[in-house]
Amino acid sequence: MNKFARLSRRAFVASAGAAGIVGATGLAMPFYSRANARPSFTHGVQSGDVDATSGMVWTRTDRPARVMFEVSSTENFANATRLAPLNTLPDGDLTVKRLLTDLASDQDIFYRMTAADLADINTVSEPIVGRFRTAPASKRNIRFAWSGDTAGQGWGIDETGMKTYATMAKHTPDFFLHSGDTIYADGAMTDEVDLKDGTKWKNTVLIDEKRKVAETLDEYRGQWKYNLLDKNVLALNAICPTFFQWDDHEVTNNWSSSKNLMADERYTEKSIALLSARAGRAFHEMTPIRFTPAEPGRVYRKIAYGPLVDVFFLDMRSYRGPNGEAESMLDTLTPDARILGEEQIRWLKRELANSKATWKVIAADMPLGVVVWDNGKDKKGAEAVANGNNGSAKGRELEIADLLRFIKNAGIDNTVWLTADVHYTAAHYYNPDKAQFQDFNPFWEFVSGPLHSGTFGPNDLDMTFGPELKFIKAPSAEQGQNLPPSAGLQFFGLVDIDGASEQLTVRLMDRDDNELYKVTLDPVRAA
Asked: What would the pLDDT profile of 378-429 be if each residue is shown by its tens digit?
């Protein structure tokens, strides 16, 4: 990242215009006092899926409105480009997002939105402003952050707020990769939680939608709106694009086609298919993810962020077979054994083979070799990839084995896997010499999270792909499980790619900005 980019972002955050990002949301003003006043923006701005020439932007209004857009390469919006307005309507929960196109590469982009009341078109809001930087067309330093797991296990917005987001913002990343469990739709919250030391955790911000599990479309939307009430989330969103993927808690814990809610008294709606459909719509409405015409609800995609890195976002949730014990031990790669699905695997192989970027970052919403049981009590069924038998590839491991073999045979170098999900941080080196399945080139997988949720772990490793544990930070036996964010074990990762040497450095960090582990990887050079 060049000096100009860092200073520009920090200057923007400190500017009056950026201060207005949070102020213009009206979050500090009771709704009743402005019900008949001008329109306002309720949940800040978001940007995402940025490449060298385009990027998505998002916002939400408090009433049906016509939203005007201006785009500029300068903070004062001199010579701004005005785009055709778009409408916010109740059937989309008053959200609006659009793709900004024809942008210059490696450029700070400022976007400004103003809302006119559709019932009184001459009544206009205060503007709201955000920024992002487009990907470079040539080699320069790149920095991005990643993590997962936001507002889970009953730990909501306390007096401090979601501090990890503020800590990440200090590093002025080019983008933030949210690895999944972006919300906890199945995690009802209470006003207070008793802690082991006799003190209380207080959710100082709480809305009705967070007091029960999400079932209706509006309740799923409310889960997203809750996160967007946090000052630290809003501030990061205003200056840094987020690249979203999803996992299970966007719907309900460990969901697959075999999930059975009949005995779960929290749910009156028992259909996983219907719940996941509602959750998927809310996910796309409430995030700046790009729209894929061929499959409108698709989450997997590639984002090219200049010549040094392509990011491949996997969806390890939507196309999986059942989480059952029998399926996890299948010897044949049937649809029931898959976790990515045939179409996504074909896409991934094709895009990896066609990638010209130095580094191929595979953003997975679940780790490969960490054992995550579907039934944790009885240690049965596979929720992730590993089945816990430490033997030859079976079940979902078959699909990953096929992918790793393809990467080796196709001569695809410099793959790095980034993931979250397990609520602790770790570095794994997958070594074929230590593996039961050995037909692959060694690679690294880095685990981070939670962002603002309970801390758990550590989990066992499955040796099918030979993971070597190079680093781990998780709760001790004395600390126990489901530690609150205030315990400090909240984690994120930073990736720096050097524009000159093309080396990739990964740092595992905690929410207090302590560096826990660091490793620098040299790129394999093409012959």
From this structure: 999 999 999 999 999 999 999 999 999 999 999 999 999 999 999 999 999 9
To the nearest 10 degrees (0 to 180), the angle between helices 342-354 and 396-409 is: 20
**Per-residue pLDDT for 7 more than 90?**
no
The rounded distance, in Å, linking the Cα atoms of 74 and 80 is 8
Backbone angles phi, psi at 523, to 5 degrees: -70, 145
- Reference 210, options 189, 184, 231; nearest CA is 189
Q: Give the integer Cα–Cα distance in Å for 166 and 231.
A: 9
Query: How many whole angstroms separate alpha carbon 44 and alpha carbon 63?
Result: 15
Question: What does DSSP assign to residue 397?
Answer: H
pTM (whole model) above 0.85: yes
- Within 13 Å and on the Cβ side, how many CA atoms surround 473? 21
Extended strands (E) in 154-198? 175-178, 192-194
**pLDDT of 5:** 38
Alpha-carbon separation of residue 520 from 138, 418, 422, 468, 505 (angstroms)? 22, 15, 24, 17, 4
| Alpha-carbon span 510 to 145, nearest angstrom | 12
Contact 117, 34 (CB under 8 A): no
C-alpha span between 423 and 158 (Å, rounded): 19
Confidence of residue 525 (pLDDT cuts 50, 70, 90): confident
pLDDT at position 30 over 60: no
Average pLDDT over residues 209-235: 98
Q: What average pLDDT is seen over the chain? A: 93
Beta bridge partners of 430: 443, 467
Is residue 256 within 8 A of residue 324, CB to CB? The reply is: no
CB atoms within 10 A of CB 487: 15
- H/E stretch holding 399 reads helix 396-409
Return the HEC string of 233-301: HHHHHHHCCEEECCCCCCCCCCCCCCCCCCCCCCCCCCCHHHHHHHHHHHHHHHCCCCCCCCCCCCCCE
239-251 burial, b for 16+ CB within 10 Å, e for fewer?
Answer: bbbbbbbbbbbbb
Residue 183, C-beta contacts closer than 8 angstroms, at least 6 positions apart: 150, 151, 223, 224, 226, 227, 249, 250
CB atoms within 10 A of CB 433: 8
Torsion of CA 17, 513, 163, 213, to 10 degrees: 130
Q: Is the distance from CB of 115 to CB of 86 less than 8 angstroms?
A: no
- DSSP 8-state assignment for residue 461: B
CA distance 58 to 242: 11
Q: Where are the beta strands (DSSP E) in 383-503?
A: 415-419, 425-430, 443-447, 467-473, 491-497
Other C-beta atoms closer than 10 Å to the C-beta of 294 total 5
